[in-house]
Amino acid sequence: MGVSVYRPMRGGRRGGSVVQPRHRNKLITPTRCDPMSAAPSRDWNVFKQIFADHWEPLQRAHPRYQTPYYDDLVAKMLACGNPEKMGYLEYRCLQCGQGTHVVAMSCKSSLCLRCAKVAVDTWVSQVSRVLHEGVIYRHIILTVPAMFRTTFYQHAADMLSAFMRCGAHCLDDFYSTVRGKALRGGYITVLHTHGRNGHYHPHLHVLATSGGYDAQGERWEHLQYLPYDLLRRTWQWHLLTMLRQTLKTEAMHQLVDTCFRKYPDGLVTNVQKGAVPTQAHSVARYVAKYVVSPPISVRRIDRYDGQRVTYHYRSHLTARVEHETVAVDTFIGRMVQHTMPKGFKRIRYYGVQAPKTFAKVQVAIRAALAKVEGVVKGAVKIIARLTYRQRYAQSTGRDPCICPHCGHEMGVWRIWHPTYGVIHDEGEVIKRGTYAASAHRAGP
What is the Cα–Cα distance from 297 to 285, expressed in whole angstroms? Predict the structure, then answer.
């Protein structure tokens, strides 16, 4: 992956926008001053160009997207990697004065495929720090029948939060039924709304403790075997009950009754077999590729001719790579439909993983685990969040903060933000220090 270094112009501003947006002009306000990992490549440009060419016509055709929220998501994504619009950090060698390196701020738009890699690293770091050491975790997937997917899409504001809570209630009920006593498990639940082909397909990825805490007996109950058939029926009952209670309409009652008749053995669920992971791997790293991936990756976009987009995916049904060509409006719609409502938390923590509960039960769980034989020691590995410097070095094999001319380490020279202006200017700091020193020497 190539790296672009922007050369400073007079006044400290940069040029060289990769894609010229063709929609309404907006002020781009980065959410945080985090640097990007690399400059855009040709593939990033293709994804951006699709939105730059067709976002405004899509909005006219679909009024639901004519909001400042969607405008902001698209505008940030199109400007990502452009230091003139997103802001930048400039590094400079203070030894020889020749080495420079400019890093554009990231946009953190949920539509941006470039920021997805950073999001994965951040998620892995966060999750690996809130797992209970010694506890075995499993990756569980809870799905929704096709007959309800349109309902979920049309009533996302009402359905999605209840859907995520429903998953936690289901697993607590499931664990308690298996053990024959009340257990409280821990669940890191991530909402996915897309399938591999980009269609709307809401489902839950759950990083779940393989067992639960028995508060009455003050012990941790590990479940070695999880009966799959029971999980299917339990999930069906909890999901359909939630749908009936959330949308109290006659049409929903009829759909629920139809679902019970159509799926007498329960709904599709998937439990990763065996412990996740082995001692040498982190559960967070293992499941990250499933839970925080964007609807499509840039390498899956095969062709864009201005009117149609061709992309590929590996089909669950055929287990083969399938190619699909769709109108550009359809492609954009498939990407945008997976953005969450503003403020919606796509990753949530329940049970003994909930932030308010974690610290309280951590000591009790450790004490309970000490009584259990065969506990996997060190199964959880804490993974520190990668810095920009580390990500860049992994991608290119070169340290971006080392001067290519003299080999000395470069320092931050200037920080500029499109809203707040110059945040730091090392040149001005040096001048003030020099003048102060000169004045001191000139004094009595």
Answer: 18
